[in-house]
Amino acid sequence: MQDDQLFNRPLVEKYDRPGPRYTSYPTAPQFHSAFAEDDYRAAAERSNRVALPKPLSVYVHIPFCRSLCYYCACNKIITHNTERAAEYLDWLKQEIQVQGALFDETRRMTQLHLGGGTPTYLSNAQLGDLMTALDSAFHFAPVEEREFSLEVDPRTVTPAQIHELHALGFNRLSFGVQDFDPDVQKAVNREQSEEQVFELVQAARDAGFQSISVDLIYGLPLQTVASFDTTLDKIIALRPDRLATYSYAHLPELFKAQRLIRPEDMPPPERKIELLELTIRRLTAAGYVYIGMDHFALPEDELTLAKENGTLQRNFQGYSTHADCDMIGLGITSIGKVGDSYSQNVKETAQYQARLEAGRLPVMRGYRLNDDDRLRRDVINTLMCHGRLDFAEIESRHDIVFDEYFADALEQLDEMERDGLVAIQANGLEVLPAGRLMMRNMAMAFDAYLKPNEGRFSRTV
Fold first, then answer.
1. Is 261 annotated to bind ligand?
2. In this model, does residue 433 exceed pLDDT 70?
3. Is 59 annotated as a binding residue?
């Protein structure tokens, strides 16, 4: 797809408004504290009793960082006291044991993701200890069926450690680069050399990692079109298998760390649109395929192949090639999806420790889906992953008449259809090239909980 088909600046500007990312439906604001530990245990039991229990996916949150990146809105603990991480690992292993006991041991763990914070804050020995605990509790699938990934801060590892991570069982890496420009790096307190990143990526290739991803952020302080173009030059030369290009949401009133960014260094709003247009133009010209949302991949990457053959999935980590799994969230703030429910752990380490010491799960809140939720989740996931809806397929799976059930949603899409973003026929809906960047806006039409002008979300473009 050519970038001029994908990017239409007047339409991008028109539809750039707050909206959910739809890593779940219903989205996190609908989670509530009435959903408690007993509800989670019941959901796990129901998931074991279905005719074909799903494989397991595990997310582990490692909240520790050695330094503060000013742009970061993640849940994190800034400390040089490694004993805190050692204590946290002990609590994690307790949660792993309690969680593992809830799931039938015939079910295999096919997917693992370590996020943060900085997962590589833990030493490789500690990560090995964690992997042993996970395998014991959740039973790793055969090597050829696994997608085991972790996020890597290039400032925290050496090439030798990259090889050790592969030996521990990880087969995918995501490097946080954000921007190579020295002035931008200094402005956000994340300084790392391009030589360092290139050396680590080469080490990952030499070690045999199946997929290497790089994260970039556009809209950071001091970024210009020229400076980010230089960063893209270097990224294209690096040739990662996948790229995630995130739009920076500057909300200093919500995130204390962002108050350390000088207001005069922030680019004007129109700059972000220019940077997005540049990113799409450069990456598509270099042969990358636009997957959706913020994601690009090489034509031969599994993510691209999954999009082409209709098996692309979406979960709390974004797009995935694996079939739908029951996802177990471990660690503070982590979110899981088990059966027809979502759950989220407590946010504070003291609460986390207290719950586990009492033999309890650290579930803080959650949500159990009803029939309407399941229908709308199916519609939104199908739209976000495949860019089209076959009304008959949805009707067959949920016993509805699509144009009657979703009359209001289809009416909301009228304007987008007039703008050439979506084509709606009697038998289905298809996102047109110019609408690919606005899929979140289309999904919003099917969201029963979204309130008009709701501003708690990031902007859709």
1. no
2. yes
3. yes
